Amino acid sequence: MKFGEKLKDLRKEKGLNQTALAKEIGVSLRTVISYEAGKSYPKKREIYTRLAEYFDLDINYFLTEDEEFIVNAEEKYGNRAAKQAAELVTEIGGLFAGGELSEADKDAVMRSLQQAYWDAKEDNIKYTPKKYRK
User: Entry's InterPro entries (predicted)?
Assistant: First the structure.
């Protein structure tokens, strides 16, 4: 189950509307709508923490491996990296469509590609001229 689906189900179980949830976790109504629609994810781990505390759950409940990869990419390298990571996850999902790989094999491929992504990011930093580094 994706993050947005989990959030929507939990919100409904508590009998909250989207506005009330937004106030509880300190984000805008538009943000909650976007989360539930699967159009975006929390940009900061702090939001996941607030959600976990509010719903009295472990933070890992909200983070699938793919979502954690996207959040980590944004924390380390910013918005652009998060978009690239999300695209990578989406395209990898398309790669597996209709295939005959076991779940373990799919996970192994995903982890390998994610590691290649991190390695490429590190190499980019190494070869970026100093005047462009942050």
Answer: Cro/C1-type_HTH, Lambda_DNA-bd_dom_sf
